[in-house]
Amino acid sequence: KLPLISRLIRSLATGMLSTLLAYHMFKQNVILGSIIISLSMLFSAILSLYAWKIARKIGTKAALMLFNVITFVSAILILSKYCIGAVFLLLGLNGTDIGPHFSIESAILAKYGNNVRNFADYTFFSTLGIIVGNYLGSLDLYILPLMLIALNFVIYAHLDNVKIKIIAKVRERSIKRLSELFAIDAFGGGFVAQTLLAGLFVYHFHASLANTGLLLSLANVATLFSYHIAYFISEKLKIVRTMVFTHLASNALLVLV
Fold first, then answer.
1. Can you say whether residue 233 is alpha, beta or left, with left for phi > 0 and alpha for psi between -120 and 50 degrees?
2. How far is residue 25's CA from residue 85's CA, in Å, rounded to a whole number?
3. What is the pTM of this model?
């Protein structure tokens, strides 16, 4: 279960840095903070797109270690008060831990047993880590997430390489349609990304670091339990229908926000 452990550790670091960056960047300059967070998401998305090619070329273990080194160097820049380092962080500053690590670890999880249940556990541990990390971020300790990222490097060194398979053309068409759906969904969600939302609370309402961490933690509590509920729903409706129907409900709530 090393992928579960590595994601929990990475999510702790993600949650802490989300809180710290939202508070310190938006306290200084709201426009610069928004640009840096947006560029960070863009860089992570681009690298995620090519993660499978990198993994096929150098192996899944080496790819994960490479991405972790990039994240570690970025965290050092942030620790040195260079917020521009957040652009290359490869951690989800939008309240979720989705990046190139996620793409490869998902392929590793597919090797073991019930893929849907494994993925539910995987995302549950991720959200749990982010909730705890968001709260720990209020301690204003930049060195702690740096130590967590370094620990993940050791875990990745003990992972086995997994062969990345090419998706069949029929399945590729279905995935492209889903990608278009979630691209539209993500565009709307980008306006209320959790780090941006917390930053705006800092900017407009002068929220303290402790309140910023608590706000981000509470925002993820409902999400924490949704993954296992989704697993049971998928047993009845199948995966694709579950993905679509649950997103329709979440988008309705997004409109209310």
1. alpha
2. 12
3. 0.75
Torsion of CA 245, 250, 256, 257, to 10 degrees: -160
Compute and round to an integer the Cα radius of gyration of the chain.
Answer: 18
The Cα angle at residue 35 between residues 30 and 40, in degrees rounded to 5? 125
Q: Are 128 and 11 in contact (CB under 8 A)?
A: yes
Write the pLDDT tens digit of every residue in 172-184: 565 566 565 555 5
Rounded to an integer, what distance in angstroms lies between the CA atom of residue 227 and that of residue 243? 11
Closest to 96 (Cα-Cα) out of 245, 224, 241, 256: 224
- The total of other beta-carbon atoms located within 10 Å of residue 166's CB is 8
- Are 153 and 68 in contact by the 8 Å Cβ rule? The answer is yes
Angle value at C-alpha 64, between 63 and 68, nearest 5 degrees:
115
Give dist(CA 255, CA 219) in Å, integer: 16
Q: What is the DSSP string of 164-178?
A: PPPPPHHHHHHHHHH
pLDDT digits over 27-72, tens only?
Answer: 777 788 778 878 888 888 888 888 888 888 888 889 999 999 999 9
Q: How many residues does the chain have?
A: 257
Return the ∠ at Cα 113 (arms to 226 and 102), rounded to 5°. Answer: 55
What is the distance between the terminal CA atoms of the chain, rounded to a whole angstrom?
A: 37
Q: How far apart are CA 226 and CA 140, in angstroms?
A: 29
